[in-house]
Structure formats: structure tokens, C-alpha cells
Amino acid sequence: MNEPNFNLNRRDLLTAAVTVSAATVLNSKPVYSETAAPQFKIVDTNVSLFQWPFRRLPLDEKEALVNKLRSLGITEAWAGSFEGILHRDITGVNQRLADACEQHSELIPIGSINPELPGWEDDLDECVNKHNMPGIRLHPNYHSYTLDDSRFTEFLKRSTAAGVFVQVAASMEDTRTQHPKLQVPDVDLSPLPEAMKSVPGATVQILNYNSRPPLLAKLAATPGVFFEISRVDGTDGIAKLLKSASPDRVMVGTHAPFFIPESVLIRILESNLSKDDLRLLLSDNVKQLLKA
What we know:
Blueprint: H1 10-20, H2 22-27, E1 42-49, H3 62-71, E2 74-81, H4 83-86, H5 90-102, E3 107-109, E4 111-112, H6 120-130, E5 135-138, H7 140-143, H8 150-162, E6 165-169, H9 192-197, E7 204-207, H10 215-220, E8 225-228, H11 237-245, E9 250-251, H12 261-270, H13 275-284, H14 286-290
Parallel strand pairs: 1-2, 2-3, 4-5, 5-6, 6-7, 7-8, 8-9
């Protein structure tokens, strides 16, 4: 009979701790224990439902994903649809997403729009007025337009007038692991500041962005641009992003189920953030998007 292995490294311990309850772990750090530990709400602004087109993912069944989020203390998750990437029937994509999210109070549906398709204005109207979606998720690289395209500017104007925020997915998959017949580069975000200047009041959150200067500085200097942390690298990456972009403009995003959600929570745990920055990151900053 094999002897049990007690030689767990630090990451093993962190993973186990986060899996038990991210909220409990984050609230129990000594820096917050002067009195009773505060209860932090965790909002994940970047998850997706249904199946990734190119392979099965461990949590691509909705029930499995929701149970995992619950186990980690995530009380709200903004859910886009993997179907919105390649499907042409966007009306059906958004209807299925709305129906799926109705079954779980944690899931907030974020609609898909493809401004390259005819009738996208009607799809936007349905997202806002029929499904009561607070935001729209765009995939410009998969839908073959750029952020200096007039179609993007027109969409930004209409979504802002409708009172919804916009999420731009800078990438979905590392270019090195993409299917050889569908090579999709990351979105060029450099035109975004100029596009937003032409639409006062626009609110855009960038998803799946591995931030790099000097573009990060230009984006951070643009009012209405927000970030999430699913692709932030390194144990000090989150703290650096908060410093570069301001703590009130960065939110939690896991990119689940494409990434395992524990990985982001571990990086937060390792970042040694202040109580105030942690609360902003985990939940308070999302209020700015919901007021869009």
C-alpha cells in the first residue's frame, strides 16, 4: 500500500484552499483580521456558456460550470455564448443564452452581436428590450471587422444610446493552439481610444487581454475603458495592472470554462491586495458598467 504524499507545494495548497471556498480564503487573510472578516461578493465578468467549437472543455456543461462557480464563492457571473463566435443566427444564439441563464440566478446573460450581419440592429434591440441584457459581447477578430471600422463605431453609438455596456473580447484562444484552418489573430485594440472619443458616454470592457505597454497606458487614459484579469500573467501581474489602469477600472474575469476559474482566484490570493483594492476588484467596480 502506498504511503500518502504530504509533500504538497505552495500552489497545491492554494489550489486546494481556493477550491474549498475562494470567498472564505480571501476573507481570512491576516491583513483583514483586525475584527470580523468582511464578506466579499465575487462577480465574474467573463464566462461563456455552451460548447467551444474546437474541443470539449471540462466545465462546458452548464450545471457543472455553475456548481464550480458556486463552490468558489462566485455569486454572479456574466455569461456570453460560445455560439456567438461562429453562428450566423444571432437571434437564436441570444434566445438560447437568455433561456439558459433564466434557470440560474447567478448567470447574467451578455448578448452577442455581429455588426457584419444584416439586421444586427434588430438583434441589439432584442437583447436590450426583450431579454433585458445589461451588456453586449463582441468578437471583432472572428467577425472580420476592426475597431476603426464604421460598423463598430455605429454599434458603439447605438449600444450607448440603449444604455448597455460593451465587452470586446481581445482574444479567445492563444494563436499558438488554434486550429490550422482557422487562424485568428488577437484584436488590434489601438483604434479603441479614438473610437470612444467619437461616442461620449460609451463604456467598454476589454476581455482576455494580456496587457502590454505602451498601448495599456493609452487604453487606461481613455475614459470608459475597463479591464478584467483572465489573461494577466505572473504573481505580480494583477497588482501591476491595478497600478497602471487604476484600481477602480479592473474587474474579475475567469474566461471559464476555457480556463479553470481557480487559476484567477489563486493569482488574486497571491497578489496581497489591500482590503479596499480587493473589494473594488471582486465586486464594486462592476457597478460602473451596470450604470452604462
